[in-house]
Amino acid sequence: MSFKSIDRLIRRNSKTKLSRNIVDGIYDQKEEQYVQSLRELLLANNQLPEKFDDYHVLLRFLKMRGFNIVKAKEMFLNMLKWREECAVDAIAKIEEYDAVKRCYPHGFHGVDRFGRPLYIERIGLVDLNKLMQVSSTDRYVKYHISEQEKTLSLRYPACSLVAKKHIGSTTAIFDVKGLGMNNFSKSGRDLFIEIQKIDSNYYPETLNQLYIINAGAGFRALWKVLKACMEARTLAKIQVLGTNYLSTILEAVDPSNLPDFLGGTCTCSATGGCLLQDKGPWTDQEISQASKGVFGKGQKSFDEISTTVACENFPGHQEPSVGKLHPISGWKRTLGMLLKDNQVGDTNENIQQNKVNEQISEKIQELENCSAQTQETLHALLQKQNELANHIEQLRKLLREAANADNKANVLILK
């Protein structure tokens, strides 16, 4: 490696040290070593864009490839190539969004008990003919990609703020009532396979658990065909349930976040139905703005917000709390310094401000320590460089002396 590469590693590794935080919790030491090894390998070849220079992003690829660093690197680079070829960052929201939602009932609806986004599809009610009339397979695939991007850049960060811990996966429920081999056409199977391939290859390890409910004999026959094209790790996260699914679902999801048509208590009647909106903490303007300001910027850590953001739990995210929260405003609280709230009048805010000041002082000290460590490392490298230069000069001197001795010997022989 060149000194320029070493310098780049030092500078970016200093950011890694700052990523330890109370929100992420305790790192697994072995996983951390794998992540650091993969990261250094990518950095050494200038193959790690800062946007993806993130502990959890790299960990997802490692997990998907069984912590085989070479295979994880290959998968990661394939993802970067695919994003460039498909111009993923330029994909916009489709114009036929509302029409698609009505032909294909699906959407995010709150969070599970852990705080993860809850995604629901009523596949048994999909009108594929109408869907292809208002859109196309290619356009729907692009729509799916845009939704995945929104989940990574907005939904997960917002949920992480509210849950006060890292959220990086989704809990999903697929209602397949009435779906079977007879009414699941080839175009439908092709669409499913294409989406599954995209999710597995380019958005690995973003599924926490998938519950397939109301699975009858027809669907179970279809399932034997569909699961043949799925990764083993993904299949392990899928649970196929019949009509007696509710007790299992309620272990993972609070009734307030489960639509009434699935046995929950939510109707979303004021907004036209549970799956026609995008319900979740990410739709709150304050939380959304806060998450945009902190997440999705490489190794940015929760440290920057852990002392300035105090979000209550979204309904259904069970954690000890004081009193019962309003079903809408329960997950909204002041975002403190991140939103530059000027109302610092009352005692609680002053206490909070003091805590923020303490944390800022600690952060300054941590940065100074990192700077000192960097200087020591650079000094050691320069010292090593000087030592190597001296060794080289000594070896050259030995060669010159040996050459001179040979010349003298040859002169004596000639005499």
TrEMBL record:
InterPro entries: CRAL-TRIO_dom, CRAL-TRIO_dom_sf, CRAL/TRIO_N_dom, CRAL/TRIO_N_dom_sf, PI/PC_transfer. Transmembrane segments: none annotated. The keyword Coiled coil applies. PROSITE patterns: CRAL_TRIO. Pfam families: CRAL_TRIO. The keyword rRNA-binding does not apply. GO terms for cellular component: Golgi membrane; plasma membrane. It comes from the Eukaryota. CDD domains: SEC14. Residues 357-415 form a coiled coil. It is found in: Cell membrane; Golgi apparatus membrane. It is a peripheral membrane protein. Its main location: membrane. Keywords: Coiled coil, Golgi apparatus. Residues 96-270 form the CRAL-TRIO domain. Belongs to the SFH family. This is CRAL-TRIO domain-containing protein. It comes from Oryza glaberrima. The lineage of its organism: Eukaryota, Viridiplantae, Streptophyta, Embryophyta, Tracheophyta.
